[in-house]
Amino acid sequence: MNVLGSPDPDFMREEEIVLFSDSVAKWIDEHAPQEKFQQWIAASSVPRGLWNAAGEAGLLGLSLPEEDGGFGGDYRHEVVLMRQLGWKGADHFGVSLHNAIVMPYVWHYGTAEQKARWLPRLQSGELVGAIAMTEPGAGSDLQGVKTTAV
């Protein structure tokens, strides 16, 4: 059941997804408990080791193919991770940007050389993916960027 009290769709109640959700919840309890996360929010930073631990647990690259270093899952796995982080108050981690935006960009649009160079290091947590774009009047609102290239 989600925060609105409505039942999850059938595809989120499949046994594999439920088991994965339980394992993600346990990982968060172990590596990012509420009391620690509140300290990290106050410091505006999570420990660097949390990224490595997430990589070791297979939580980075969830929806990328296994042959490219990912978990081999689909977007439901990303949703499970995001939901569990939110439910446990650990949603400031930034892993959803890393997993669901940055890594797929590299996978979809990178050359074979770029993929080989970046994806394993993003999957392991050695590197942390981020987006940085701005222009006058847009700030950090990527949808507000008006510049185009021809």
Would you write up a description of this structure?
The protein has helices at 15-31, 34-43, 48-56, 75-87, 95-109, 112-124. The protein is mainly α. The chain has one domain (10-144): Orthogonal Bundle (Butyryl-Coa Dehydrogenase, subunit A, domain 1), CATH 1.10.540.10. Helix 1 (15-31) packs across helix 4 and helix 5 packs antiparallel against helix 6. It is globular. The mean pLDDT is 90.
Average residue pLDDT: 90
User: Beta fraction of the residues?
Assistant: under 5%
Provide the helix percentage.
40-55%
Identify the overall geometry: globular
Structural features:
mainly alpha, 150 residues, Butyryl-Coa Dehydrogenase, subunit A, domain 1
Outline:
With 150 residues, the chain is mostly helical.
What is this structure's SSE topology?
Elements: H1 15-31, H2 34-43, H3 48-56, H4 75-87, H5 95-109, H6 112-124
Helix pairs in contact: 1-4, 4-5, 5-6
